[in-house]
């Protein structure tokens, strides 16, 4: 086995290590550090306004000449059901009151925002784009490919991987059940039904069914995980949690500490924060909201309804009322520079391969 | 990396491949074939009467001179609640009627059966015993160790692995969430609460926290999985589903075909068949019984209540009313000899390591 692969050539990177999008927690420093260390940094643009996206890309371009990616959330047709929003607002009232927060006005501009992001990506010459929550429409894929932008899709099942390949993605992330944060699933996707296939099962079955490069994600934190993923047939790895606790990450100290202090059994998959299932450390907000499991408004509505509450809670050091996305390997999380993390992984992987 | 390890020396086997207990589906031929091929065959004795256990051990000893193991279910204190059993019998009536099956008399002799099994294991000179559902009492462990019997425990969390090590187990199976059949969990263990940590997360965290040999289980079907597991720090692998579809397995053709025809998303974790959570292919019985999720009698009661129904269903080719344990990698299942399976895995692993 070798650490260089088709995908390192395709993405023009030295090491097959991708830093996951992690919307809300990436910084230009993190993205550039990972890319400068030889991996692929990713701007987590899922929640960005066009203006913010433009700024972040500019900043990253100032910090690195090497390839980096932008991760986007693919919009889907979702219904705004006023009654559901009213109910949720009533349940969220105690939290808003605690922080003196106004009820937000929900916007349904997700699709417009996505299209604006595509324009910015083309204008700014972004070399690589990754997608979560689905596959963009064919005309968008063709526009990006015409500009020689490399496309990375996300799949939680073999069927989703095949759909990504058919749509023209160059690379597909196999997101195993261990992964922290949002499930990338787009075939079925409620908290009860979202596919949760472990990385050990998902990767080899996916590799057997698609010809494009497969990147393993979920539970991978170190050189052991990199070599294991390559053995399963992946050409590289994507890591979120491992980079989330790094020095350059935008996650708060509260958030980083919550991960470091947690155990492998502490996470659950829940849709109560954003309306889409995501893996995070269990806390009071999840427990309280579990009652209304069937009545949570869809993403992006629920995300907008809870966003200010989560920010306010994090600001005052309240880990019980904010999301704490984490994968199932928190015992392997380290508070070190993303640069050192990449270096250590490659060193450990090479030692394993040469042992 | 090398395929020989501390554990191959400890178990006195050539290859670090353990065939999982798979109560109900192992045959002496399967056990002996795996051992003769250089791995470790395991008699799945979980449901055996003392007489049956004695017979199976004798038969295996006739078929191989090499080490093999016996897998036992560790009994736990469970309550027989007459009301719960009455309700379940009412819900099961339509199934019994369909097959002309009498209501069974539930026996609570699990503990006695376990103690008898320990005597037989000592008398017959069984070299290795593995345990599922917990850790036996200290006096039993000491009696087995005094006879130089090697002990293998099962853990689904780091805490359970540490408990196994403290109790004196020589080896611990890290059972990842991908694994088919019963969850070995003994800390928390209801369908809702049973820990489901993916193999990619579980193995390296476990290796970091215990000094005894860790064996990876869950989703592993081929040489790729073996090398991946070794990279994560495991000293070997345990496979159930991969051996279940082998020629020598005792599983019915119905059962084997159900696995071969299924996809990675087709399994669920359910307690409706036996009273303990187990991963199997979703079917009508699971759907119907899901309604009574909170009212399923504990193992071994529910197991006894549904056992004859499941056997009768399997006999008439009804895959909807019987258990179909399977892990999350059914696309990798093969109908080949267990001997060839072991040989292929070692060949593929060596090719990967030398590539």
TrEMBL record, chains A, B:
One GO molecular function term of this record is: nucleotide binding
KW Transferase (keyword) present? no
Residues folding into a coiled coil are none
Q: Which reaction does it catalyse?
A: 3 propionate 3-nitronate + 3 O2 + H2O = 3 3-oxopropanoate + 2 nitrate + nitrite + H2O2 + 3 H(+)
Q: Which InterPro entries match?
A: Aldolase_TIM, NMO
Question: Could you tell me which SUPFAM superfamilies the record lists for this protein?
Answer: Inosine monophosphate dehydrogenase (IMPDH)
The cofactors required by this protein are: FMN
Q: Does the keyword Hydrolase apply?
A: no
What keyword terms does UniProt attach to this protein?
A: Detoxification, Flavoprotein, FMN, Monooxygenase, Nucleotide-binding, Oxidoreductase
Q: Name one Pfam family in it.
A: NMO
Q: GO biological process annotations for this chain's record?
A: response to toxic substance
Q: So what does this one do? A: Nitronate monooxygenase that uses molecular oxygen to catalyze the oxidative denitrification of alkyl nitronates. Acts on propionate 3-nitronate (P3N), the presumed physiological substrate. Probably functions in the detoxification of P3N, a metabolic poison produced by plants and fungi as a defense mechanism.
Q: Which PANTHER family match?
A: NITRONATE MONOOXYGENASE-RELATED
Protein family according to the UniProt entry: Belongs to the nitronate monooxygenase family. NMO class I subfamily.
Report what the protein is called: Probable nitronate monooxygenase
């Amino acid at each position: 086995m070798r650490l260089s692969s088709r995908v390192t050539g395709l993405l023009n990177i030295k090491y097959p290590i991708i830093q996951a999008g992690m919307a809300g927690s990436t910084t230009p420093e993190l993205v550039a550090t990972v890319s400068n260390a030889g991996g692929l940094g990713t701007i987590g643009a899922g929640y960005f306004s066009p203006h913010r996206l433009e700024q972040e890309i500019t900043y990253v371009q100032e910090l690195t000449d090497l390839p980096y990616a932008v991760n986007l959330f693919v919009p889907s047709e979702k219904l705004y059901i006023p009654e559901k929003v009213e109910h949720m607002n009533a349940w969220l009232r105690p939290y808003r009151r605690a922080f003196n927060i106004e009820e937000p006005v929900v916007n349904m501009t997700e699709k417009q925002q996505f299209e604006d992001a595509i324009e910015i990506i083309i204008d700014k010459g972004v070399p690589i784009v990754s997608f979560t929550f689905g596959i963009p429409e064919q005309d968008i894929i063709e526009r990006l490919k015409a500009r020689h932008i490399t496309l990375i899709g996300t799949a939680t099942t073999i069927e989703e991987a095949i759909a990504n390949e058919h749509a023209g993605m160059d690379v597909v992330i196999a997101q195993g059940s261990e992964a922290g944060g949002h499930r990338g699933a787009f075939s079925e996707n409620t908290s009860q039904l979202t596919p949760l296939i472990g990385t050990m099962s998902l990767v080899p079955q996916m590799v057997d069914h698609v010809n494009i490069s497969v990147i393993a994600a979920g539970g991978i934190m170190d050189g052991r995980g990199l070599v294991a993923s390559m053995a399963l047939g992946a050409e590289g790895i994507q890591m979120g949690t491992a980079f989330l606790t790094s020095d350059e990450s935008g996650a708060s100290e509260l958030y980083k500490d919550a991960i470091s202090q947690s155990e492998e059994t502490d996470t659950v998959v829940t849709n109560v924060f954003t309306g889409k299932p995501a893996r995070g450390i269990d806390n009071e907000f999840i427990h309280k909201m579990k009652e209304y499991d069937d009545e949570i408004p869809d993403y992006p509505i629920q995300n907008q309804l809870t966003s200010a509450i989560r920010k306010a809670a994090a600001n005052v050091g309240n880990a019980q009322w904010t999301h704490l996305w984490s994968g199932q390997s928190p015992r392997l999380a380290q508070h070190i520079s993303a640069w050192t993390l990449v270096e250590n992984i490659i060193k450990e992987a090479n030692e394993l391969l040469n042992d």
